[in-house]
Amino acid sequence: MSRRVKQTVKDIKSLKVQGARNVAKAGVKAMMYAVEDSKAKTVNGIKADVVKAALEISGARPTEPMLRNYLDETIQFVASEIATVKTRSVKKFREMALKSENEYLQRMESDIKKLKDYGASMLNGGMTIVTHCHSSTVTGVIKEAHKRGKDLKVVACETRPRYQGRITAKELSRAGLDVTITVDLGVNKYLKKADIVLVGADAINSTGNLVNKVGTSSLARLAEIYDVEFFSCAETYKYDPLTMFGVRERIEEREKKEVWQRPPKKVEVSNPAFDITSAHHINGYVTEMGILPPSALPGIAEKKISKKRD
Asked: Is 287 in contact with 118 (CB distance < 8 Å)?
């Protein structure tokens, strides 16, 4: 495995690269590195390097179906090229593989542009928006609405133990928005006057449930109590097709030292990275295909993902 691929895996594991979309983009670029850096002399040899890299990249963050969906597409493309003997030479094969990866990146940019347009259109001037953790998709939607002249206020939950809410607060403040950051459980005070909650998504399962940063499910329940609409901003590629067959989304357990460096010996430390928010508490998903109810997203996403793989 090349040095560049190893570095990408390290960056994803350490959260230097974070956010489902950013992780997926980094994964696609790492697959390009695997093709470019492979020392294999045959097409099958390059394929072996690509598959090995995909397994390492996928294992860096287990709760990232968007990453897995793009990696699966890459492997299927490589296998198809070999099976149909479309590319006989190593040079031609590299060119085709790199072209395919670039098309994935272009598709990501096209999808996020559409999503931001739908999201910005649903926000009205004067709204107070509550966010949780850091999602480049959510901040992208808010900044797009701000660019359109909509006066918005944002309340960002700090999101312990890694304080990703600070990233959200800094990014939106620099963009010129009115931002308040609050301790996670302090959000109760702000929800009373909030208009909408916007969160990102790490995964969406076959029932429309949302897997996102731990604390999201509690925020959704609080929003429901205060009659505040709750939306997740998510490309359809964050849908996990395996959940349709009963495979449960794995909830990553982060290192205990993130919570407490030296806890007493008899104190058990729990540090789940994500939790699951029931579709019943979600008003809708803001996607590149429009604003979808939780019940509709799995079927629409499945068709899109299957079509791209055919």
From this structure: yes
Judged by phi (left if over 0) then psi (alpha if -120 to 50, else beta), residue 147 lies in: alpha
Active-site positions read 133, 202
38-97 residue pLDDT tens: 999 888 898 899 999 999 999 998 889 999 999 998 888 877 877 665 556 888 888 888
Residues whose CB falls within 8 Å of the CB of residue 125, separated by 6 or more in sequence, listed in order: 149, 150, 151, 152
pLDDT level of residue 307 (50, 70, 90 thresholds)? confident
Query: Which range (68-72, 134-138, 211-215, 268-272) has the least confidence?
Result: 68-72
The first and second tokens of residue 189, run together, are 């005070």
Q: Residues of 192-219 as b/e, b for ≥16 C-beta within 10 angstroms?
A: eebebbbbbbbbbbbebbbbbbbbbbbb
d(CA 131, CA 156): 5
Q: Is the bond leading into 161 cis (omega within 30 degrees of zero)?
A: yes
Place of tokens 């040899």: 45
The Cα–Cα gap between 138 and 233 comes to 6
Give, in degrees to the nearest 5, the angle at Cα 305 between 300 and 310: 125
Dihedral in degrees, nearest 10, Cα atoms 74, 78, 81, 87: 110
Whole-number percent of the chain with pLDDT over 70: 97
Whole-number Å distance between alpha carbons of 145 and 128: 13
All structural domains of the chain, each given as residue ranges with its CATH number in brackets, are 3-113 (1.20.120.420), 123-309 (3.40.50.10470)
Instruction: Quick: pLDDT tens for 168-204.
Output: 999 999 999 999 999 999 999 999 999 999 999 999 9
How many H helices and E strands in the chain? 10, 10
Which helix (H) or strand (E) is 210 found in, with range? strand 210-213
Measured CA to CA, the distance from residue 240 to residue 218 in angstroms comes to 22
Its sign, for the CA torsion 197, 194, 215, 160, is positive
